[in-house]
Amino acid sequence: MCRRELYDFDFARSYAKYDGPLVRAVTALKYDQVTPLGAWFARRLVALVRASPEPFATDAVVPVPLHAARLRERGYNQAELIARPLARMLDIPFRSYLLVRTKPRPDKLKLTIRERWRSVRGAYATRSGAQVDKMRVLLVDDVMTTGATLDACSRALRTAGAARVVGLTVARVIPNWEPPTTSQLDTRE
User: Fold this and answer.
1) Where is average pLDDT lowest: 108-112, 127-131, 181-185?
2) Buried b (16+ CB within 10 A) or exposed e, 22-45
3) What's the pTM value of the predicted model, to 2 decimals?
4) CB within 10 Å: which end of the chain, N or C, has fewer?
5) Statement: residue 176 has pLDDT above 70
6) Are 33 and 75 in contact (CB under 8 A)?
């Protein structure tokens, strides 16, 4: 769980750890144009939302936007390919036009944590004329690494008046994570 004191979003959830086959699947969606994976990921996120103890009460599903240059280069926004079917399956309005990426970004794969946070500072804004006041937003992206992108998007939405922002990603980078052993899971005294 992500704490509200650290981020501008209320909380964030991810389907799974960014590891193994999931890395290959996200990469295939993002860079290899295996676009049907967007709906496949959306189905997993729907199950996560429905099973979550936290309330996902939402007025709009919003994908993290790409900068126009990156969108032209790639031809599609992978977050939108996940968010659009997710919104349809949850019967929540899809609002891709609310946020815009105003600054291009460097390749984040080569950035340190501090550089990642700097690279997104002021990089997102609500689109001129977008009605966000008192809105509860479900913000969708493919991978959460440091939380910097979700935080920057949330800051833009909150500045425009959003009441609540919840992050939802397919995967989460968890550094130095090891699955618990059987003995750690044993609750017997």
Assistant:
1) 181-185
2) beebbeebbeeeeeebbeebbeeb
3) 0.87
4) C
5) no
6) yes
